[in-house]
Amino acid sequence: QVHLVESGGGLVPPGGSLTLSCASSGGTFTDYAMGWFRQAPGKEREFVAGINWYGTKMHYADSVKGRFTISRDNAKNTVNLQMNDLKPEDTASYYCAARRGGYSANVPSYEYWGQGTQVTVSS
């Protein structure tokens, strides 16, 4: 059983930056591709970024490409999401998730989820 805990959310003005972190425990971290997702009130959960088990292949939603960077540290069992040039439309709860095999943008394909961390972009 993999346990995921996100941290690093908060309130940031437009144009600001935040780094989210997700700590994994209870499994072999390198067995899993990792993803970041977000969900705004009244909207469906959507893919933000994914990374393969080795950290060599990354994929981003078009809405965050060029602004967000996903990375992982397999020695520390963590995956991070560096978010720059934040916009009000980035406001959401952000979740990390794990799945066996390659990364995917498909929400149901992820086996394990954290409880989320809130990101609010507002002046």
What does this structure look like?
The structure is a single chain. The protein has no helices and eleven strands. The chain starts with a strand and ends with a strand. The strands form two sheets. Strands 2, 4, 5, 6, 9, 10 and 11 form a seven-stranded mixed sheet that branches. The model has no long low-confidence stretch (mean pLDDT 96). The chain has strands spanning 3-7, 10-12, 18-25, 32-39, 46-51, 58-60, 68-73, 78-83, 92-100, 112-113, 117-121. The protein has 123 residues and is mainly β. Helices cover 0% and strands 50% of the residues. A hairpin with a 4-residue loop joins strand 7 and strand 8 (78-83).
Secondary-structure element pattern, one letter each: EEEEEEEEEEE
Kindly report the average pLDDT value: 96
- Main sheet properties: 7 strands, mixed
Terminal CA distance: 40 Å
Itemize the secondary structure elements and their pairings.
Layout: E1 3-7, E2 10-12, E3 18-25, E4 32-39, E5 46-51, E6 58-60, E7 68-73, E8 78-83, E9 92-100, E10 112-113, E11 117-121
Parallel strand pairs: 2-11
Antiparallel strand pairs: 1-3, 3-8, 4-5, 4-9, 5-6, 7-8, 9-10, 9-11
